Amino acid sequence: MPLNRREVLGSLALTGAAALLPELALAQTAPLARPVPSSGEALPIVGLGTWITFNVGDDPVARDDRTEIMKAFFDAGGRLIDSSPMYGSAQPVIGYGLEKLGHPKPLFSADKVWTSEGDEGPEQIEASHAHWGVDRFDLLQVHNLVAWEKHLDTLFAMKEAGKLRYVGITTSHGRRHEEVEKIMNTHDLDFVQLTYNMADRDAEDRLLPLAREKGIAVIANRPFRRKELIYRFEGEKLPAWADEIGAKSWAQFLLKFIVSHPAITCAIPATTRVDHVRENLSVARAPLPEAELRRRMVAYIKSA
Ligand SMILES: NC(=O)c1ccc[n+]([C@@H]2O[C@H](COP(=O)([O-])OP(=O)(O)OC[C@H]3O[C@@H](n4cnc5c(N)ncnc54)[C@H](OP(=O)(O)O)[C@@H]3O)[C@@H](O)[C@H]2O)c1
Fold first, then answer.
1. Which residue did the predictor score with more confidence, 5 or 82?
2. CA angle 14, 186, 145 (to 5 degrees)
3. What are the residue ranges spanned by the domains of the chain?
4. Does residue 230 line the site of ligand 1, with CB under 6 A?
5. CB 220 within 8 A of CB 196
6. In angstroms, what is the span from residue 141 Cα to ligand 1's centroid?
7. In angstroms, rounded to a whole number, what is the distance separating the alpha carbons of residues 275 and 278?
8. Which of 55, 81, 96, 200 has the largest count of CB atoms under 10 Å?
9. CA-based end-to-end distance of the chain
């Protein structure tokens, strides 16, 4: 049986976090949200990635198009936007859009530090603040564990000083999971970001259970394996029972699987299309599949 809105919010209550949820999570029209374990703050279960899709340079038409993506995202109740200094012009393009949209209050800014010289972290973070046009980020993550020891020192010191709300690390493509596990066990992380989708499920074995045990929020990147999964299935029929979980397209089917894992806080699909933002955000509506239906989804994918 799929989980409905009441049951999903009920599971939040079990964490003791429901009392802390802002109105956003409880409003009938808002997307489903999960609490960040370290604070109880509710985050909608679908966010927005910006790798490649927001790297459009100074092209004014493309910049306005990306602003429309962000507008549609906020209009649908989205909050978390993920970027990195590694993503070319994505940061200034986000900053351009935020300014045009009047710096929407719901924004949850998730950026990264990515430089092999640990000492260069603070300077890079200052440049990222300027690109986004924000005084402080909600979340900073050490991108792909690059120089992670030094950068984590910087990020924890910033958090301590009130210059940052949450600290995290990222990996992708299933890389360096043993090291990620070690850091999760030895550092007081708020977030970990990793690849989790219907074809990349290694994280289910150790990292997702560990995240639940340690109270670490999880951001799922590469939900479509950069569109490979959409291409793989678009010629196939959706199963009739996809309707039971409100999945009307393969994109929704794939996303519903990711965000229904109880350890996942949110997935961050990237897109260049307003209709796709809306389609992706509508996944954050009940119902979500529970364990038995999730097993059926995996079996169906394997046989497709
Ligand atoms: N190590 C790290 O920290 C790391 C590594 C990888 C990724 N990330 C983060 O994760 C984000 C997502 O991963 P990703 O960018 O690799 O790829 P992705 O989100 O798996 O796939 C993006 C592709 O999916 C398509 N798409 C999106 N919504 C769709 C829909 N409803 N229907 C059909 N197609 C759809 C987009 O095409 P259209 O433009 O046509 O919609 C785009 O080409 C990144 O942008 C980045 O923020 C972080």
1. 82
2. 105
3. 5-11+33-303
4. yes
5. yes
6. 18
7. 5
8. 81
9. 22
Position in ligand 1 atom list of the atom nearest CA 54: 45
Give the per-residue pLDDT at 1.
46
What span, in angstroms and rounded, lies between the C-alpha atoms of 128 and 9? 35
Give burial (CB, 10 Å; 0-12/13-18/19+) of 139.
Answer: buried
Residue 258 tokens, joined? 């990711």
Task: Give the model's pLDDT for residue 234.
Answer: 87
- Compute how many other C-beta atoms are within 10 angstroms of the C-beta atom of residue 123: 11
d(CA 154, CA 38): 19
Say whether pLDDT at 26 is over 50: no
Atom of ligand 1 nearest to the CA of 50: 45
CB 207 within 8 A of CB 181: yes
Spell out the long-range contacts of 50-53 with Cβ–Cβ below 8 A and sequence spacing 24 or more: 50/81, 50/82, 50/83, 50/87, 50/90, 50/93, 50/94, 50/270, 51/83, 51/84, 51/86, 51/87, 51/90, 51/270, 52/87, 52/226, 52/270, 53/90, 53/270, 53/271, 53/272
Tens of pLDDT, residue by residue over 224-260, are 999 999 999 988 899 999 999 999 999 999 999 999 9
Is the whole model's pTM more than 0.90, yes or no?
A: yes
Q: Do the strands 80-82 and 108-113 form a parallel or antiparallel pair, or are they unpaired?
A: parallel
CATH topology of domain 5-11+33-303: TIM Barrel (3.20.20)
Looking at the predicted structure, is the pLDDT value of residue 144 above 80?
A: yes
CB of residue 121 inside a 6 A radius of ligand 1:
no
